[in-house]
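A protein record pairs a chain with a discrete description of its three-dimensional fold. The following entry can be read in just this way:
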Amino acid sequence: MKQAYPKILLLAFISIFSFSCEEKEDPVPTPSFYPDLSTFVDRFVAEAKARGLTLDLSAVDIAYVDEIKFADGTIPCGAGWTIHPNTGKRTILISKSVGCGWATLSDLKREQLFFHEIGHAFLNRTHDNSSLCDGTPVTLMNSMVYANSDYDAEPAKKEYYLDELFDRLAANEECINFGQNWDTNPTFIKHQTGVGTWNFSDSKGTMSGSRSPADALVISSISDKTSTETGYWYSQLEMPNIPEGAKVTLRTKVSSIGLTGPGAAIGLRLYDTELQNTGALTKQSIVVSTEASPISGVLDKVTLEVSIPNFTRKTTYMIPFAVMMPGTQGEAIFEDFEIVVEV
């Protein structure tokens, strides 16, 4: 049964509530569950301006969605695309899924996550899980950004993360944990360890790629077909955690019972980004290769190497190559394929 309250009590309650509101000098507004995302865009532009950058994000698609689901089944809470697979545009999506908890996050935590996605979509940044010597992430682009509580812990740390977001070289002012002693262990990557994913380009079907029993990289010509382009193995290594100014060397040993024609070679390419008004562009910054002087004939673990004398942390990714030159017949085996670092 519904209970009837005297009108005078109701009026008294309203009067008390109104009085309380009037007495409050600095009311704290309840933050919106889903604030306009342009708020965070404006903050990003302002942070860029404070660092001497003038940016225009007007062409970036930005929206809330009920859920984000990738083709591999992953369900992230935010996503940023440099090129969206459907629209071809720079795109940032924020999930309203209850499991993501956006509606309950603090304003600074929302800013942190949104800036992470801007890093993907506008700055062409990929995930970087390296850490500083104190154990905290090197960058806001860490894949565990939801667990990073340093951005909103102290102003100096937030300032560092913003500096690094716009310029990776900001990390050089900090103590970086490289995960190894380069003097005693100079190997950054060795193919046999299984680090990274290797792919093969088959020169329009005129060459084949395989792995030896020892997991070496093998390139073979195909009978009755003449290649007009290189066949090559390659691996893309993103955000390499290598010290500024280090010498980086790609090295391998090549064997063959007999190559005819130009022969085999190796190469190493580095890429970085150039931030422009409407977004970052990824460009090749350095390429070193032995393709100008490939080796051929009977080969027994002949060493090939190329070096970059002065590595920079502006590098966003590097690609090592094992190459068979156009017009080559036979099979080449690339063993002990590795990248070593000297500091």
